[in-house]
Amino acid sequence: MDMHEFKKIFYMEWGHRIAGRALGLLFVIPAAYYTIRYKLPKPIPAKLALIGLGIGFQGFLGWWMVKSGLEQEIIDTNSVPRVSQYRLAAHLTAAFLLYLGMLSTAIGIQRDIKLLKNPNILSQLTLPSVKRFRGMVHGAGMMVFLTAVTGAFVAGLDAGLVYNEWPTMGDGLVPPSNELMDPHYTRGGTKSIWRNITENPVTAQFDHRMLAYTTFSLVVSLPFIARKVPFTATRRLAGLTAAAAVTQVTLGITTLLYLVPIPLAAMHQAGSVVLLTCIMALGGSLRRPSRMLRHLRR
C-alpha cells in the first residue's frame, strides 16, 4: 500500500467516524429537548433512550471491528489489512437495528395519528385477509433482514470474488460439496457447518444466494396477495417493495459479474437499506394501534 492508497482509506474512515459522531449529536440533543420540553407520552421516551444508547454502542462496535484489523499477527506477516467478518457483521447488524428502530418509532407515531383521524380503519385491521397478509409481511421482513446480514460475511471474506458467474457456481447451481464443507476452515478437523458458513467464502456466497432467492420469491409475491387487502396504500407499498427487491437482486448479480467494484458494492448495500425501508413501511400500513392509542380510546 502506498501513501496515496493509505490516505484514501484514512479519509474514508475519518469521514465515517465524523458522520457517526454527528449522527449521535443530531439525535440525542433533539430527543432530550423534546422529551423534557413537551413531555412525550410513554413509551416514546424509553424508545428514544434505547436508540440513543444504541448509537453509543454502535460506536464501540465500530472501534472493536477496526481493532481486529490491527492485530500484531497481521502487522508482523505484512498481510493485507482485514477486519474480522464476525465483528463486521455485528457492526452492520447494529446499524440496521438502529435505523429500523428510528424508522419504526416514526412510522408508529404517524400511524397512530392516522388512526385517530380515521378510526374506521381499526375494524378493517381485524379482517382475516389483513391478518394473514400482516404475518406474511413480517416473515418477508425477517428474511430481508437475515439476507442483508449475511452480506456482511460475503464482504468480510471477499466471497464476492469467488465464482463471479450467475446463475451457476462452477458446473452447476450448487458448488462441489468439498468446497462447501471444506475441513480447512474448521478448527477441530471435523466438517463443522457453522465454521464453513461464517469462514468459508464459497459457503458464504452460496448461503447469501440461496437466502436472496428465497427472500426475492417471498417479496415479489406480496403485490399479488395484497389485492385482497382493503387498503390502497398497502397495495401500492407492496408493489414498491417488490420493485425494490427486483432492483436489489439486479444490483447483486451485476456486482458479482463485474468482480465487486466498490461503487456497485456500495449501491448494493444501499439497496438493502431501501428494501428494508420499503418493507418496514409496508408493515407500518398494517400496523395495529399502539398501547397509548388504545388507552386514549378507552
Automatic annotation (TrEMBL):
Pathway(s) per entry: Porphyrin-containing compound metabolism; heme A biosynthesis; heme A from heme O: step 1/1
Of the GO CC terms on this record, one is: mitochondrial inner membrane
Asked whether the keyword DNA-binding is assigned, the reply is no
Q: Which GO terms describe its biological process?
A: heme A biosynthetic process
Predominant location? membrane
Positions of transmembrane segments: 18-36, 48-66, 86-109, 140-163, 210-226, 238-260, 266-286
Keywords, alphabetical: Heme biosynthesis, Iron, Membrane, Metal-binding, Oxidoreductase, Transmembrane, Transmembrane helix
Q: Could you state a single Gene Ontology molecular function term? A: metal ion binding
Q: Where located?
A: Membrane
InterPro entries, A to Z: COX15/CtaA_fam, HemeA_Synthase_type2
The record gives the membrane topology as:
Multi-pass membrane protein
Q: Cell membrane among the record's keywords?
A: no
Reaction catalyzed: Fe(II)-heme o + 2 A + H2O = Fe(II)-heme a + 2 AH2
Cofactor field: heme b
This protein is called what?
A: Cytochrome c oxidase assembly protein subunit 15
Q: What is the lineage of its organism?
A: Eukaryota, Fungi, Dikarya, Basidiomycota, Agaricomycotina
